[in-house]
């Protein structure tokens, strides 16, 4: 036998046995009778056996055909068990905990939270999507995740939410920038009038900065660069591209090492709550509730 029989032909053979004729089996499978006849003839050539007695009154299984049909049933049953089992395993793993998080939370806070959770439950599987805050809220509203984490200011509409951590945006610039040589804080209007390196529209960082400027009656000019992650913004500032308003979580090590310089803005602080969000209707349960409880604990608390 040059190659094993295809599954469609085995399925047709089983239907012939069940339906009592090739014509009925073809109709059951939605194929024409000539196509079914050709398929079984090809199966016979591959096996080197005559499986059907073909007469003017119809087709019936030969003795060899009956034996092969029994083996074919076993193959098809095993295939069904394989696919059903794999699907069950997939559901069991992917359904345990589905999370989405904004980039800053995902990169700087969530690894420790999930790590603590998995130490308590080593078998826990977490499916994580990393995106901006607007998209996290969208996923939560549609029930596509168990729990989300955002960095947008305020409470998102149409969702339950709870503050889990605090953060603030700091104005940073590379050493040698003109603002780093000043002894006094920079005026908010000057910052708003300066093209900054920013995150993309829809990010919590971008929204928080815009809200802080609006509180002073200011609207920032278009950005110098618009980048898709806080790490990319940080790298651009380190490379000397320009200043940025960015999460303190992202640049804390750079500020301590002097790689970047923090610039005070006169009368303006940009503090925000990092929030967990979930669909309205019920509180998180199981692993989602455990993750929410872990996120609300102060850093370093066991």
What would your notes on this structure say?
The longest helix has 32 residues, at 63-94. The chain has helices at 7-19, 22-29, 33-47, 63-94, 103-108, 110-120, 133-141, 188-192, 204-215, 230-238, 248-257, 286-296; strands at 52-55, 58-61, 97-101, 126-130, 147-150, 159-173, 197-199, 225-227, 244-247, 261-263, 270-279. Helix 6 crosses helix 12. The N and C termini lie far apart (65 Å). It is an alpha/beta fold.
Keywords:
302 residues, seven-stranded mixed beta sheet, 12 helices, single chain, 11 strands, alpha/beta, 20% strand, two-stranded antiparallel sheet, 47% helix
- Main beta sheet strand tally, sense and closure: 7 strands, mixed
Low-confidence stretches: none
Beta-strand fraction estimate:
15-25%
Rg calc: 32 Å
Q: What's the β-strand tally?
A: 11
Distance between the termini: 65 Å
The chain-level structural class is: alpha/beta
In one word, what is the shape?
elongated
One letter per element, helices H and strands E, the order comes to HHHEEHEHHEHEEHEHEHEHEEH
Mean pLDDT across the residues is: 88
Helix content: 40-55%
Q: How many helices in DSSP terms? A: 12
Q: Topology of this protein?
A:
Layout: H1 7-19, H2 22-29, H3 33-47, E1 52-55, E2 58-61, H4 63-94, E3 97-101, H5 103-108, H6 110-120, E4 126-130, H7 133-141, E5 147-150, E6 159-173, H8 188-192, E7 197-199, H9 204-215, E8 225-227, H10 230-238, E9 244-247, H11 248-257, E10 261-263, E11 270-279, H12 286-296
Parallel strand pairs: 3-4, 3-5, 7-8
Antiparallel strand pairs: 1-2, 5-11, 6-9, 6-10, 6-11
């Amino acid at each position: 036998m040059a190659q094993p029989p295809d599954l469609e032909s085995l399925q047709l053979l089983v239907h012939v046995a069940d339906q009592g004729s090739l014509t009925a089996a073809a109709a059951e499978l939605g194929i024409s009778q000539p196509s079914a006849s050709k398929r079984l003839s090809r199966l016979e050539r591959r096996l080197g056996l005559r499986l059907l007695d073909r007469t003017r009154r119809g087709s019936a299984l030969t003795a060899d055909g009956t034996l092969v049909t029994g083996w074919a049933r076993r193959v098809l049953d095993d295939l069904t068990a394989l696919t059903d089992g794999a699907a069950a395993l997939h559901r069991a793993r992917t359904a345990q905990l589905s999370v989405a998080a904004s980039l800053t939370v995902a990169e700087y806070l969530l690894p420790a939270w999930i790590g603590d959770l998995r130490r308590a439950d080593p078998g826990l599987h977490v499916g994580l999507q990393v995106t901006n805050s607007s998209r996290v809220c969208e996923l939560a509203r549609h029930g596509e995740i168990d729990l989300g984490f955002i960095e947008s200011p305020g409470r998102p509409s149409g969702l339950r939410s709870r503050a889990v951590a605090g953060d603030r945006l700091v104005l940073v610039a590379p050493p040698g920038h003109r603002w780093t040589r000043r002894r006094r804080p920079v005026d908010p209007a000057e910052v708003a009038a300066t093209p900054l390196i920013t995150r993309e529209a829809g990010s919590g960082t971008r929204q928080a900065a815009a809200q802080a400027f609006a509180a002073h009656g200011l609207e920032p000019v278009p950005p110098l660069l618009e980048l898709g992650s806080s790490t990319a913004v940080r790298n651009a500032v380190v490379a000397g591209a320009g200043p940025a308003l960015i999460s303190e979580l992202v640049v804390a090590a750079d500020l301590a090492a002097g790689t970047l310089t923090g610039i005070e803005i006169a009368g303006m602080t940009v503090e925000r709550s990092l929030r967990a969000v979930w669909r309205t209707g019920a509180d998180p349960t199981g692993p989602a509730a455990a993750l929410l409880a872990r996120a609300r604990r102060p850093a370093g608390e066991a």
